[in-house]
Design goal:
0% strand; 2 domains; mainly alpha
Length: 311
Amino acid sequence: MDPARLYDLITLAGLLLLTAAALGAGVALFGEIRVRALRRNRFAAAPQSRVAAAAPGLVEPLLAAFRRLGQETAVRDPAKVSMLRTRMIQAGYFSREAPVVYLGMRAAALVVATIAIVMTLPLVAGGGAQAAISLAGCVALAAVMGPDQVLAARRRTREREYVEGFPDLLDLLVASVEAGLSLDAAVSRCTDELARRYPNMVVHLRFLVLELRAGRARKEAWTAFADRLGIDDARALATMLRQAEEMGVSLGETLTVFSQDMRAKRMLRAEEKALALPAKLTVPLILFIFPCLMGVLLLPIIARMAKVFPN
């Protein structure tokens, strides 16, 4: 087949696919806006939700579209939604609709990536096959792994804060318990003290305080707290408190021993980072500092040799 004819066919197919995608998106968006308008008129007297109040304009229909796409995935695999909810809580998204919206955003990202890959088809026929394949691969990789990587990065950032703040939390708990407060009152006191230094961890502590005030068993509340944080130190503390409660051991002595253990672990982590620093500096030293040093040492010698031997 003539290359020009093939190029025209690929371009026409791409335009048709893009037109169909645009029409489908427009119809879906128009239907969603119409349904939202009817529902708003029908329930005008009902109080608006926090999401609706915080998402004016086109953000509300987009969130509704993401939620609808996510619900389709959630219905097919409810176990995945349960696991995803735990990851979302550990990343700082506490809304019950957060996993559904996240799944909808992933589905939308795949749709956008598909459209972008279709748009690269004319480049294949025009001779830029390698560039088109590279661009399509980057777009597909970003659509498939991008949302998970963003969620994982947010989760790692919060985990670092939790690991750094957990020894301070234990020290405050020990001081409060030894001063005569109960464990529940000590947690409430620590929540007020750590609000400025560790704001993300304080959110989980407030959930813990609310669960304890609501009458939930202490061991269940602390286990849920450890699951929300997602760090080993919190799980160890929950296990230690459960065993201390079952065996009747003094909480003050138990927390003191555990706090000393946490301080020792923090010191070991600091020493580990300090010992790993020379190995991490090896590559920058070779790539950046060593060439400059060799240039400073050798350039005067080269200049003098050029004067001595001009030819």
